[in-house]
Prior knowledge:
Oligomer: heterodimer
Distance between the termini of chain B: 64 Å
Largest sheet of chain A: 6 strands, antiparallel
Helix content of chain A: 10-25%
Number of domains of chain A: 2
Shape of chain A: elongated
Largest sheet of chain B: 2 strands, antiparallel
Radius of gyration of chain B: 23 Å
CATH class of the largest domain in chain A: Mainly Beta
Strand order of the largest sheet of chain A: 1-10-9-4-3-2
Structural class of chain B: mainly alpha
Largest interface: A-B, 29 and 32 residues
CATH superfamily of the largest domain in chain A: Rieske [2Fe-2S] iron-sulphur domain
CATH class of the domain at 31-275 in chain B: Mainly Alpha
Order of helices and strands of chain B: HHEHHHHHHHHEHHEEHH
CATH topology of the domain at 31-275 in chain B: Cytochrome Bc1 Complex, Chain C
Strand order of the largest sheet of chain B: 1-2
Structural class of chain A: alpha+beta
Number of helices of chain A: 1
Amino acid sequence: MSQTRRKFINTLLGIGSLGSLGAIFYPVLSYLVPPKIAEAKVKSLKIGTVENFSPDSSKIVKFGRKPAIIVRTEDGEFRALEATCTNLDCIVQYKKDTKQIFCACHNGIYDLHGRNISGPPPRPLGEFQVNIINDEIVITQPG
Amino acid sequence: MIKKVYNKIEEWLDSRYDLSPVKEFIAHKKVPVHRHSLWYYLGGITLFLFIIQVLSGILLLLYYKPGEDSAYESIRFIITEVKFGWLVRSIHSWSANLMVLFAFVHMFSVFFSRAFKNPRELTWISGFILLVLAMGFGFSGYLLPWDELAFFATKVGTDIVGVVPVVGETLKVILRGGEDVTGATLSRFFGIHVAILPAITTVLLVLHLLFVQRQGMHEPKEFTELPEDKKKYIPFFPDFALKDLLFWLIVFNILLFLAVYFPWELGPKADPLSSAPSGIKPEWYFMFMFQTLKLLPAHILFLEGELVGVLGFGLVGLLWMLYPFLPFSRSEKKLQITTIIGVLAILFIVVMTIIGYLE
């Protein structure tokens, strides 16, 4: 009788302790994950006039929270790509000598459409649509 | 006069706390003397450098201000305005690197002399965790100046965490304090660097030292096989302690030389909207892992290359930590598998590090 009573008390204590631990750790673990900051979803972005970009140059702009790279090719065409390397999150750059997109962290190379052509990047860079409206360049997220 | 005061204090304490076990311990602690005795000093040197880290770190805390708009500026203030600030910062950085270096050498010396074997398995494990913590100190401290190199190294380092299956992405967000490396990351790394890691390290360090004190120095096989009268020992106090002190002084001088003649640099301030500079590299003790990841192809079979690399390093690290429990670690053959593994490990680390710096 006393044995089952002890067992009963122990089980009760055990459940209580587990509950208490849960009540401590759940809020702590939740606290560790930062809340998502609400931000207006950016669909398209004006990045300046055509004259601001000389041929064979590039610029990094902020598209929402992510960086984007704008490249004006030698023949004056505009390309806009996500600037975050798909390998390990570094920010890519435009290489004038090879006319490619290059990531200096791990020597990842993409072509000017964002296709990963050599090095460690596993995926291509996302490409934005570029429209020129009244001399002003507007980049738009596809889809 | 001093002696008298000292005796008085000792008497006072002794009558209240009975110091005889401590005195007994100190009087009988001895260190074996043989041709590999030199390796006994490495752990002590690492400890000495850790103490320097704590002290110089406390000094830096007086002026350092974490935050996207203040971290870089406060470090610049320390090295340009504060008297001897450049020296304190330089000592902190150099001593961190030397500490990791000596910890590595200490670990390999223990590995090759098989000091990890029964009964010292837990000393080995606690030591390995201390090395990982030291690397954590290095990684978190690297970001604190908020310069360009630090920023991208942290982006890469934390992104690697993200490739771990299932929990990776959450871990990455927890570590970064958000999706990206921002001021929130800096706050977290600061907290990790000055509060969380020091607390955990203190506990493990005390355990590690207690284990060593309880079991005494490991004696290599060739020493234990000597006849009793051929075994030479020196007392820990004062002989070994004085030699320890001598090594500490030598290391301290090297540290000061490096800190004064090669003051630690501060690069340009981090700009989240600039391309990664070429020549971005992590601290040298991460280089071999960084380089390995760099050399892996984008895909290995159906897995991403970096995932294979990260899981591989995780697995190897775990096996290394549990090495004393692996069946072949106890092999007594002439050309021991332990020696081969140790040499291969060092070769791999050295070669990968060199390739990393040559590129």
